[in-house]
Fold this protein.
Amino acid sequence: MSYFRDNIEKMTGYTPGFQPNQVEVVKLNTNENPYPPSPEVLKAIAEIKPEQLRRYPDPMGNAFREAAAQINGVEPDWIMCCNGGDDLLRMAFTAFCDRKRPVAYPVPTYSLYPVLANIQNCKVIEVGFDKEFNLPARLARVRAALTIVCNPNAPSGTIVKADELAELAAEIKGVLLIDEAYVDFAERNCTELVKQFDNVIILRSLSKGYSLAGLRFGYAIAKPEMIKGLLKVKDSYNVDAIAIAAAAAAIKDREYFKQNIEKVKQERGRLTEQLRGLGFEIPESSSNFVFAEPPSATRSTSSGQPRAKEIFDKLVQRNIYVRYWDLPGIENKLRISVGTKEQNDTLLSALKEILDTPREIHRISGT
Ligand SMILES: Cc1ncc(COP(=O)(O)O)c(C=O)c1O
């Protein structure tokens, strides 16, 4: 008999994006922000006193909670600090899902959701997006205990309107978790929905918009009753003293944040235009990445591989990393994080070279 529960024994764990060790790479595979965090963050970390490390941290992270509440136009008891947005996702599965309480979400989406469902051993209802990544109407009818909508969605980068999510929140009996990890790069967010609905939770991350993926900090916004329930399943000290101070400094520096986001958006526009110029098909992105289908008359290469896989491999040979999935429906797509101008230019010239090179012809011997 295995030491592990059956579902853990059978499941495959989450595969994080590749983190290369070399410095000399163009890393556009895990949607990190290409610019550094606010200088206020480094100042806050430098000011940490030994006493703050000797003691346990504030379990509620109130310094951050208060700043985040002000920025989002709610009271501090509407905010809960998390060890990255992923921590909130895990809490949601623990709090709302079990064998009789399924999770539902539109696909393709963030590949951590099914992994957390497997850990929790709950039923998963995946509802396919259409080609334009519109919110599937069926999502409201599947009777899930937890419905997750990633908005903007990963890996498509597309966004659905707050009105549509309001309709969904009103129709379902369970909880609607809106994963807004990438919303800082979008033109609108769904904060207003937590004020209108008891069953809405919003997830935010400081990994992308605030350039703090290494810090591990995110937060939930929801009505105080919902936050109270989630606190029951939170690790007591899920965010550490350094992270609380650094995250509070980051979120308070609004000027730096706005400039950072603007730079990413500008580069996103330029990258999208240039990639489309090379023949890639890309839906409009509201995130810090683009979802690109390579130009190809046929979907497969002569070796039978999807065209995207061949481009991915050739980019790796040039020390350029983007994300590729060998999964039904998205096997001929690349997700490319928006880098600095220099990184994007390196990628674009590599792609020009790759697309200009005649493809290898694999002859079958004897013909
Ligand atoms: C859609 C989505 N949600 C949530 C997260 C969690 O982000 P973090 O745990 O870094 O805050 C990620 C990270 O890549 C993501 O892509």
Observations:
- The radius of gyration is 22 Å.
- The CA atoms of residues 95 and 233 lie 7 Å apart.
- Residues 31, 84-86, 110, 150, 154, 179, 181, 205, 207, 213, 218 surround pyridoxal-5'-phosphate (CB under 6 Å).
- Residues 254-277 form the longest helix (24 residues).
